[in-house]
Amino acid sequence: MRRTRIGAGAALAAGALAVTGLAFAPAALAVTPATATINADCGSFGGGESTLTATQSGTSATITLKSSAVTAPIALGADSISSKLTLAKAGGGSVEFTGKVNPAMAAGDPVQVGPLPGTVASGDSLEAFGGSLEMSVFGITITCTATGPQSPGPFVFD
């Protein structure tokens, strides 16, 4: 009888250790690449290199865009830029990431918007080239488009 209790106790301890190991295992990166760069043209507002950073949690994803090539023309308060980032979907269609999320920026600071939320499906391959970024600041709409494919490649979501 004692051997049965020890065996059951050992099995429970091993199971608990296995569950604990899973709980502390590092999370898998859900979107690859996590960061990509594009060259963007924003018309008379400028243009140049921008960095896109993507995150994913299930079907929810966010994209943050930072650009040192496009700067704030005036001081802007936090959450004062309405943004719509449209990414082209491989095979046709598009996915939109929208929101009014940005840090406060002084005049001349690099523009940053996001994290902008959107919905993705497993296997979605999204690319900035063929899409656009529309930012509305004080009633003025600024539209930026990528001049070529993003590097190192499109965002692929799990």
How would you describe the overall organization of this protein?
Strands 1, 2, 3, 4, 5, 6, 7, 8, 9 and 10 form a 10-stranded antiparallel sheet that branches. The chain has 1 helix and 10 strands, in the order αββββββββββ. The longest helix is centred in the N-terminal third of the chain and has 22 residues. The protein is 14% helix and 50% strand. The chain has a single domain, classed as Sandwich (Immunoglobulin-like). It has 158 residues and is mainly beta. The termini are far apart.
Number of strands: 10
Determine the N-to-C terminus distance.
49 Å
Helix content percent band:
10-25%
Shape: globular
Give the low-confidence spans: 1-28
Keywords: Signal
Signal peptide: 1-30
Protein name: Secreted protein
